[in-house]
Structures are given as structure tokens and as C-alpha cells.
């Protein structure tokens, strides 16, 4: 997969809804109903972070949900890429970017939403052909004002800000011309997942799906 094709596909996925749920799931038995609730609420693009022992099984279960597009977050090594792809992930998300990680994603035809927090990092990725990036950690890196400032000299690069994005500040990001969507974890709070309150999660997803529209 070429960088241009990867960015094109990443942009398509990011454009499916204003919010991409960032999911940390400890129990694979919760995966499928959680994904069904989020998709029913209008958030079809799902990022499952590789931060729990169950993450790969969670990806495999969510990949079975009709209408969902499941990706793996926290990709750091080529081994992560292979494991995520084998589990059924159809896109990847990384907190940053290394040549080894990018090479692995290209070799395995896994579209990558690579992380960048500075103009230099964004320029290096753009140099490799990537123009759809993750801005991370968004709030700690200066928030919407910083992302707006980066966009002035780099208008050809688009972002999905993640990290500290919440209902109270999401619109600050979504109103920027260089933002396609934002990543957020609030649509699947741990307490609702633990209690199996799928109706509550669907309601949060439906509310998030209307942001900026």
C-alpha cells in the first residue's frame, strides 16, 4: 500500500463520523455488544487500543459487527502491526511514527493514522506521503490553538486530534479547517461498559455523531 493510498483510506475512515471512539476494553465478551451500540449510535469507525491483554480478541470480535470499521490503536512495533492485521483490524493508529512502523504498515496494506505533535513531525510524515495524521496528545500539545497554528503553514495536512478531547472542547477542534474528526473515549465510559449499559453508550454515541453537523 502506498502512502497516498493509506492516507486516502485513513481520510475516508475519519470522515465517517465526527468522533472516533478510542476504546480500552479488558473483557472480550463485552466487545461485540459495545461495537454494536457504538455503530447503532452513528459511530462506525472504532479504535481499539492495544493496551490490554484482551485487545486482539476484542478486535476480532468487533470485526464481526456489521457496519463497523475496526482499527488498532497504540501500534508501536512491526509486531503490533502484524498481530493487529491478523486479528482483523482494517486500519492502524499510532501515537507517533517510526520508519519501521510505517514500513510494516505499508508492507501489510494496513492504512495508518500516524501520530504527530509538532510541525516538524507533520512535515516528516508529509515528506513520506502521509497527509492524514493523528494530532497527539492533543490537549497536552497546545490544544486547538496549536493545531490551528500548525495548519497555517501546512494546509495540505489534515488531522484527527486525540488525547484530552471531551464533549466540552470537541467543537473547538471540529471547527478547524484541518480537522476531519476527533478521537474520544467518553462515548464508552468504563462504568457503562462494565455494567453492560449498551443503551446508554448508544445514546452517548448518537449525541457525539451530531457534533459539528
UniProtKB/TrEMBL annotation:
CDD domains associated with the record: KDPG_aldolase
Keyword vocabulary terms for this entry: Carbohydrate metabolism, Lyase, Schiff base
Class of this enzyme: lyase
InterPro entries (alphabetical): Aldlse_KDPG_KHG, Aldolase_TIM, KDPG/KHG_AS_1, KDPG/KHG_AS_2
Recorded metabolic or biological pathway in which this protein acts: Carbohydrate acid metabolism; 2-dehydro-3-deoxy-D-gluconate degradation; D-glyceraldehyde 3-phosphate and pyruvate from 2-dehydro-3-deoxy-D-gluconate: step 2/2
Subunit architecture: Homotrimer.
Protein's name according to its UniProt entry: 2-dehydro-3-deoxy-phosphogluconate aldolase
Organism: Roseobacter ponti
Organismal lineage: Bacteria, Pseudomonadati, Pseudomonadota, Alphaproteobacteria, Rhodobacterales
Gene (UniProt): eda
Amino acid at each position: 500500500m502506498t502512502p497516498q493510498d493509506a492516507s486516502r483510506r485513513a481520510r475516508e475512515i475519519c470522515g465517517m463520523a465526527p468522533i472516533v471512539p478510542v476504546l480500552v476494553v479488558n473483557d472480550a465478551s463485552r466487545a461485540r455488544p459495545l461495537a454494536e451500540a457504538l455503530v447503532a449510535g452513528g459511530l462506525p469507525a472504532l479504535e481499539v487500543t492495544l493496551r490490554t491483554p484482551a485487545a486482539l480478541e476484542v478486535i476480532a470480535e468487533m470485526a464481526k459487527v456489521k457496519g463497523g470499521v475496526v482499527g488498532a490503536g497504540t501500534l508501536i512495533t512491526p509486531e503490533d502491526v502484524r498481530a493487529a492485521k491478523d486479528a482483523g483490524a482494517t486500519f492502524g493508529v499510532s501515537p507517533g511514527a517510526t520508519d519501521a512502523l510505517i514500513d510494516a504498515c505499508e508492507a501489510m496494506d494496513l492504512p495508518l493514522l500516524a501520530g504527530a505533535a509538532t510541525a516538524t513531525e507533520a512535515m516528516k510524515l508529509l515528506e513520506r506521503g502521509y497527509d492524514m495524521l493523528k494530532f497527539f496528545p492533543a490537549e497536552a500539545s497546545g490544544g486547538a490553538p496549536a493545531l490551528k497554528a500548525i495548519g497555517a503553514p501546512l494546509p495540505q495536512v489534515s488531522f484527527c486530534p486525540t488525547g484530552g478531547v471531551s464533549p466540552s472542547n470537541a467543537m473547538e477542534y471540529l471547527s478547524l479547517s484541518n480537522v476531519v474528526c476527533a478521537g474520544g473515549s467518553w462515548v464508552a465510559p468504563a462504568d457503562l461498559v462494565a455494567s453492560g449499559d449498551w443503551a446508554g453508550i448508544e445514546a452517548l454515541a448518537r449525541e457525539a455523531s451530531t457534533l459539528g453537523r
